[in-house]
Every structure is written in C-alpha cells, then in structure tokens.
From TrEMBL, chain A:
InterPro entries: KH_dom-like_a/b (IPR015946), OsmC/Ohr_fam (IPR003718), OsmC/Ohr_hydroprdx_reductase (IPR052924), OsmC/Ohrsf (IPR036102)
Protein name: Osmotically inducible protein OsmC
Native source species: Streptomyces violaceoruber
Automatic annotation (TrEMBL), chain B:
EC number: 4.4.1.2
Protein name: homocysteine desulfhydrase
Keywords associated with the record: Aminotransferase, Lyase, Pyridoxal phosphate, Transferase
Organism annotation: Streptomyces californicus
Membership in a protein family: Belongs to the trans-sulfuration enzymes family.
Cofactors required: pyridoxal 5'-phosphate
Source lineage: Bacteria, Bacillati, Actinomycetota, Actinomycetes, Kitasatosporales
PANTHER family reported for this sequence: CYSTATHIONINE BETA-LYASE, TRANS-SULFURATION ENZYME FAMILY MEMBER
Amino acid sequence: MRNGMNIAGVSEMVHEVQTQPHEAICRYGAVARWSEGRGIRAHNEPAVLGTVKSPRRYDLTVAPEQGPTRDDAPTAVRLALTALAACALTTFVGGGSARGVTLESLRLGVGAERVREGGRDRLTNLSYDLAVRADTGGVDIAEVVAGMETQSPNHRTVIDRQPLTLVLGDGAPEQAPEPAAPPAGSGEKVAAAVDWQYSVQFLATADDASAPLRVDQPKQLAGVDWGPNPQEYLLTALASCVLGRTVALSEAAGRPAGPWRFRAGGQVDIRGLFLIGPDPVVPVHRLVLEVTPPDGAPDGWQDLVREAVRTSPVAGLLMDDHLVKIDLDAAAVGHD
Amino acid sequence: MSEQRDGTAIGSFPRARADAGWMNDLRRERTAGPRTPHQQSLEAPAGNSTTAVHGGTYLDPTTRAVGTPIFQTSTFLLDETSYDAFHEGVTRDVPIYTRYGNPSQWSVQEKLALLEGAESALVTSSGMAAISTTVLALTNPGGHVITAYDVYGGTYNLMREDLHALGRDVSFVDAADPAAVAAAIRPETQMLFVEGLTNPLLKAPPLAELAALARQHDILLVVDNTFLSPACLRPIDLGAHLVVHSATKYLNGHSDLTAGVVAGPRKFVDRVWAQAMRLGGTLEPFSCFLLERGLKTLPLRMRAHHENASGIAAFLAGHPAIGRVHHPSLPDYPYPHLRESARGYGGVVSFEVAGGDAAALRVLQALRLPRVATSLGGVESLVSMPFNTSHSSLTQAQRTAVGIRPGLIRYSAGIEELADLVDDLDAALALLDEDPAPEATTDSPDDEARDGRQEETPCATA
Ligand SMILES: Cc1ncc(COP(=O)(O)O)c(C=O)c1O
C-alpha cells in the first residue's frame, strides 16, 4: 500500500486493460430534474466499468446559479470545479504512487473568473494552486504534475475541445451549438478546493456556504464508494447547469417551467489515465445530454435548451478549450 | 536459528513496479493462485479424478511427504518478502497470517480451482461464509441482486433479512424461467445468484442461458454448485462468473466438516478474499487438510452417489406407495437440458409418499440404513423431510406453492451398496401396506402448483 493505494491492484488493472481493452471503458451518467418547490435534484446512474456494474447511489440538491441558495447545496459551477480538481488529484495520486512518491498532504485549489454579460456566462482564466507535501523518493514532482496535465480525463476535457451531443425529446441526436464566446472584461472570482484524504478519497470545499463534498471511486475501481467520482460530478454539473438555465430561460419567456429531466452521459477510457497504447483517448468523451421536457412543453422548447447549452458556463467549460495556469508549491518531507 | 526463508520458494510474486514512470509501467498481472512452487502443478489438462488426487498438493521439500502437511499455525515469520508484500498490497500471495492465507488453504484452493475450471478459489469457514462474503464483496449499496425464491434457506434468509439492511435490494424469481429473470433485471442489477440444482425438488435453471443474459447486462452470475459438485457440473464452463459451495456437503463428503468455497477469476476472488479478511470467515488449517483429503475421492464418490440415487429413483418411480419422484434420470424430469451439461446428478432424490406426511414419517422411522438427519453429500445416506426441517417455517399452502407437497422425503444417497439401500426402502415401504396411512395427499396438477408459486414466498430456515 502506498498512499492508501493498492499498487499491485492498480498494476493488475493496468495489465487487464492492456489485454482486454473493453474492460477499460467506464460509462457514467447523471440525471438532474427540476420541479417547482424542490428546485434541482440530481443523482448518478449505475456506472458500467468495463463489464462490471456499480450502482453509484448518490443524489444531491443543486443550488440555482442566481438567487438564494438552497441550504448548503453546491451550484453546478462549484460541482464542475470540484470535478476538475478532484480528477487532477486522482491522477496525481495514481501517477505519484506508481513512481514511489509518499504523500503527506495534497491540496488543489482551482480558481476561475466567471464573466456574465447579456445572457452569456463563461468561466475563464482558470488556475490551479497545487500544494504537495511528500517524501518524493527522488522523483521530480514537476514530472508528476506534467503527467497529471496530460492524463487527467476531466482536465483534458477542459483544456481540449470536446463535442457534445444533444438528444432533445424524441428528436434525432444533434451536435450541440458552439458555446458563446466569452465576454470581455473581468468577472466574479469562483473557487473550490480539494484535499486528499487517503487513496482516491478526497474532500472538496468551497468558499461559499456550501457543504463539503466527498469524492471517491467505486470499489470496483480501487475506491470505497465514499462519494461520486470526478466524472460523475462533472456530468452532474453539466446536466444541472443546462437544466437550471433552461428553466430560467423558460420562465423569462413567460412559459411555465415544468418537471424537466436532463441526463448527461459520458465515458472514460482508463487506458488514457494509465497512458496505455500509442494514442490513448484521455478526455471524458461521448458526452451526451438527453432532455425530456415536461408534459405540454410549449412549441420551440428545443430552442430554449439549445440556447441554455450555448450560454451554460459548465457546457462552455467542457466544450471549449481553455488554458489552465498551474502554480506548484512542493515541499519535501521525510528523508529525501 | 536462521529466520531466513527461501524467498523465491514461498510467496514469490511478480513485483508491481519496475522503476515506473507512470501507471503504465506497473508490471504485476493477475496469475492463478495463490500458490507456492512446492505445489504439484498439473501441466497437461488432467481428468477429474487425476486432478482430484494430485491437483494443488504441497510436496514438502524437506520431508518429501506425499501429502500436504497441515500448516497448523496462525502466523508466519516476517521477512523482506512479507514487508514487500505489505508495501505492494499483495498479501494474498505471501504467508503472513492465517486469516490472510496459509499454504494449507492454498493447496486445497488450487485443487478446487482446478476442479471447477477457475483461475482462483478461496476456502471459507462455511458455505454461508462463502455466500455472504461473495455477495457483499461483489455488490455495492444501491445495488440489486436477483435470486431464486427457492434457494437454500440460509441463503434466502441472508438475501431477505440482511441484504436490504446493507443497502442491496433483492428480487426473488423462478430461476428456471429465464423470462422471469430477464423481467427482474434493473439498471442497478449487479448479481444473479442461483443454484445449479435446487433443494429438494432438483430444479435445474438453464445456466448457459442465464449466463448469456447476465453477460448481456453486465451482471455477475454466481452459481451455488453444492448439489452437483464439479464432478457433475462445471458452471464456469457454461458461462457463470463464479461458483460457490457448501463444501460441508459433497466436496468434503464425510459429514465431518463445515466449510465453504468460492471459485472464479482472480479479479473477483481477490475481492472476495479482501472481504473475507475483514468479515473473518477463514478456514483453519486442519479443516483444510480434511477438505483436501475428502476431495481426493470426489469423482469416485460422485459416481457412487449418482448411481445410487438413480437406482433409488428408478425403484421408487414404479412403486405403488410412491407419488411423484424428483430425479433428473427419470423421463418426466422437467429440466432435460441438465442431461446435456451434467455428468451425473449427485446423490439426492426426492419423492412423495402417497400417504402424506404421516406415512412419510413412518417410512423414515422404518428405514434402517439412511440416518435421519439434515445435510447431504456424505458417504452415508441421510434422509429428512422438508416439511419439518428446511421448509418448516412455511405454511402448508406456501409449501404447496413452492412444489413441496405432503409426504415429500429428501433422500441423500450415500455410497453404500445400491441393493442394500433399495432393499431397505422396499422393506420400509412394505410396512405401509400392513397399516395404511390415514392421511391422503392433495394431488394438485403440476401447473397448478407452479402457478401458485409466488415471488417472495417466505422460505426456509437452514
Ligand atoms: C445449496 C446449499 N448452499 C449453501 C449451504 C450452506 O452451507 P453451510 O451449511 O456449509 O454453511 C447449504 C447447506 O445446507 C446448501 O444446501
């Protein structure tokens, strides 16, 4: 065990997906629903990890992006930043543990500027503050950080462009509209931080009033089912964000909002995370958003959803490419 | 005294790391086992009997004993190999502490894995330990399990009383009906748990069909193979992911041990092992020895059990004092597909005494050879009645609904002379003629009995 990770177990997984590539494909889903009074509730769908299923029974309330928060619920943007930071750290812990780094503490703060103007809402100027305290065993931490940048699925989804497929009601799958260009100028600062606990368990906090979030992998993937994993948070953020905007647009257009259902799906090829094969696919891909409108939704609801996608900060984060500035604060502990 | 051991001999294992640059450089792969190099390896595929005798045997290099020694210890000297094993997380492969693993376990586990056609096996302190540990290890809170409404009572109680408390939902279906199984599948269904041959009516679910269904939905098929043993049926060959047993029965075969086993791919058995370490249902070394010794004669015994049960079934099928006889060898057996996949049907034959429960009890009293006791699979014949043992918690109506009708006797044929067993039965049944039983059976047609079966019939205690 190193850093709480069963290195042999990870090693066996690496070997398994080398010889049986279909075992590398992990499919995740999140569903967000809106209803009058309760607002947005989201839950994860069972994950299919290669040929093994994990039920992933997690649900949470998502706070609206504007207006009063619901108790201590996180916003979709906070969920997305948490997903980004937690995936980067999961990748760091995996890569670092493989290389023999013994961690004492690990924290990643992720910050962004949220610029809103004329209905557009974008996250820009992304940055990481990575604090590492470790017995490095002679390993250059900057190399582990470089591995994190290239192999973290959520990070790559954010820094690369990713297509998103929309399935609107019974309609044929369509390409989601390009995200609106970020407005000029500066915006409000948003931030979240993720602290490593043990193995692939993390605790995420934010500087708003929302409660800490637990992050973990399924027990089938070296976790202990302590919470949703970074991909599940990302998909929850996507579904909730576009749902929230659709409801807001619908209300602004004087149309009553009903019980919408948004399902976000995506998959990860863990050969990307492991760096297996000549050109492994790293980002979360096959991103899809399936929308079930309320009964009696007015004609043209599809355009409301398209507009919600175009202007959603989370959809923009995933679909567009971004630069992420990384600040590393690494200090050696132990007997280097 | 030297505390060094030959690290390449015991607990050698491929290291995970070879100066890894990233995770792709980790080098450990799953291998069969755990095993030590002193265990007999069967290079060429061997017949069942050969495997049963030789598979996995530990050939002690010091004494050159022909049988596996009993490693009667709870702990082992620590050395660099042990520390490495802790560090790398491969403590299943190195003798450290008997709850983690012991060469006595490894020997018998290897024999069992070879017999079941599995990569790895784990022995446990009972059949229920194997079942509960397997189900818990391979499902998660929020998951769903499908099982049969007529599974063994202990399994039924685990599924009904404990799993929901642990966050797993369970559906009980007729496992012999793939359409019923398919209808119960949900997005969160993780496991289908069935018995290869059920107690006491010897229903045989179509395992190959269920395996295909399970794989199509990313569900693990776990088969309790207690009633047939690998000498008769190998569920893994039919597509099952894992096999569990009450090794208390045929595998040990002498009614002198309580044990269990789970066998399957190392990917899953390792997880069951990790769960077993935490829950604690380890099999201790002396019991491993008994089980390994019992297993050496498994194919031989299973042939005798099969011949005796088939002979008894043939005798009873034509007997005027007997109603229905449940046995796969009989022409009216409703699951003929079993004949294609099985090399024998074990030793159980169930039959209805025409005079009902009272008459059946008189038969039990009159029998000289089989002992009246619960359990099965030992060399000695045993008889019992479901109505006052395994299925006593059911009402008469519920028993009828699951097909257990008045007068049903479960006969576990041992390995005695068939002629002696038949003569004994003949004599016991003849006594019924002298003093006809007062009670009459309710003779519901087959379809009626089947229609009456409900999902979630509260089933038996152990
Ligand atoms: C089919 C079956 N499975 C499991 C068990 C439980 O095994 P054990 O009694 O060894 O715990 C039994 C016991 O009768 C059984 O018949």
